[in-house]
Design brief:
The protein is an alpha/beta fold. The chain folds into two domains: 244 residues, QueA-like (3-Layer(aba) Sandwich), CATH 3.40.1780.10; 76 residues, Thrombin, subunit H. The protein is built from seven helices and 17 strands. The strands form three sheets. A nine-stranded mixed sheet has the order 2-1-17-16-14-3-12-13-15. The chain has a six-stranded antiparallel barrel with strand order 5-6-7-10-9-8. Strands 4-11 form a two-stranded parallel sheet.
């Protein structure tokens, strides 16, 4: 398939720049994948599509303050976007500067942290931080929240709360699993009181999630690797749901990818475990675990839009996005949600 098949025109005013006042007050577009019927709902209506014994899978990754700013020896400015913490003093990162730094080049972050470039692999650099504090401590002190590039403002204290799910726990993401941003504690409590089983997986969202697909044939695109963990508790909950003919709802493409990665690693059977995944889901993929997907509206020509098109059907997704634009839904990270039933 061609990347043009996943392109669409979006009015810039529909790109949400700030979160709405209450997490759970967003809108929800429901797509019945079998019939193609669309319904305009509110996020709180999600409970109407679930019943006791259904399983909701959430990604409990925690967004770190991954963006750092510094000065090169030449006096030029440099921006570091941490992709992954490798050890107490080393990170894998992307760098933005007027000229790409060379191996063994040094620069200073926040006026006091000496950083050395150890290695480069395409657009990712291995950096060493020469400081008594660990990288994680330095990020907390001097880093800023890495808002997506389509949010055209600096991060504020509001984002430190709202660009994080209420159940975030495992540190390591550099972008939020945005479908989960709609849940507040009241919604989670309501689901559990209904008898819905809420369980967790981890997938540390990388900066590559915002990278567009540049190749013409989508199969030629290479995915970035991300850490995932599917615990035994989640596997048991899903097995119970399958035996009892209940739904499995993945909250976000990241939860879905973690589950499918664990299935691939289990040779077709969902198994607990952890590791790195570069799973790339395109139309024609055979889904093994998930029945329903709760997701936000995604960027044109992105791997996330390709994934939801594989899940809901390309024509269905095209029609859904046209409807969402006509009805003035809010798009992307701080935008509204979509519920896709296969």
């Amino acid at each position: 398939m061609k990347i043009q098949d996943f392109d669409f025109s979006l009015p810039s005013e529909l790109i949400a720049q700030i979160p709405i006042e209450r997490r759970a007050s967003s809108r929800l577009l429901h797509l019945d994948g079998k019939t193609g019927v669309l319904r305009d709902l509110m996020f709180v209506d999600l409970t109407r599509h679930l019943r006791a014994g259904d399983v909701v899978v959430l990604n409990d990754t925690y967004v770190i303050k991954a963006r750092l700013f510094g000065i090169k020896n030449t006096g030029g400015e440099i921006e570091v976007m941490v992709e992954r913490v490798l050890s107490g003093h080393c990170v894998l990162a992307m760098i933005r500067a007027s000229h790409a730094p060379k191996i063994n080049a040094k620069f200073v972050i926040a006026g006091q942290i000496l950083v050395t470039v150890l290695h480069r692999d395409h657009n990712l650099y291995t950096l060493h931080f020469d400081h008594e504090k660990t990288v994680s401590e330095l990020l907390d002190l001097y880093g800023s929240l890495p808002l997506p590039p389509y949010i055209l403002r600096a991060a504020t204290s509001i984002d430190e709360t709202r660009y994080q799910t209420v159940y975030a726990k495992e540190r390591g993401a550099v972008a939020a699993p945005t479908a989960g941003l709609h849940f507040d504690q009241a919604m989670l409590t309501s689901l559990q009181e209904m008898g819905v089983i809420v369980t967790y997986v981890t997938l540390h969202v990388g900066a590559g999630t915002f990278q567009p697909v540049y190749v013409e044939n989508i199969i030629d695109h290479k995915m970035h690797k991300e850490f995932f963990h599917v615990p035994e508790e989640a596997v048991n909950a899903i097995r119970y749901a399958k035996i009892n003919k209940r739904k499995v709802l993945a909250v976000g493409t990241t939860s879905l990818r973690a589950l499918e990665a664990a299935t691939v690693a289990g040779n077709g059977e969902l198994k607990s475990g952890h590791g790195e995944t570069d799973i790339y889901i395109t139309p024609g993929y055979r889904f093994c675990v998930v029945d329903c997907l709760l997701t936000n509206f995604h960027l044109p020509c992105s791997t996330l839009l390709i994934l939801v098109s594989a899940f809901g059907g390309l024509e269905n997704i095209h029609r859904s996005y046209r409807h969402a634009i006509n009805e003035r839904y809010r798009f992307f990270s701080y935008g509204d949600a979509m519920l896709i039933e296969r």
